[in-house]
Amino acid sequence: MDTRIVALRDRKDLVPTVAKWAHEEFWSYAGRTLEQTQVLFTPVPRQTWLPRTFVLMQGERPVGTVSIVEHDLDLRPDLAPWLASLVVDRAARGRGHSRTLVKFIEDFARDNGVDRLWLFTWSAEGLYAKLGWRAAERLGRNGRDIVVMNKDLADDAQH
Ligand SMILES: CC(C)(COP(=O)(O)OP(=O)(O)OC[C@H]1O[C@@H](n2cnc3c(N)ncnc32)[C@H](O)[C@@H]1OP(=O)(O)O)[C@@H](O)C(=O)NCCC(=O)NCCS
Question: What angle in degrees, to the nearest 10, is found between the helix axes of 15-22 and 34-41?
Answer without folding.
Answer: 120
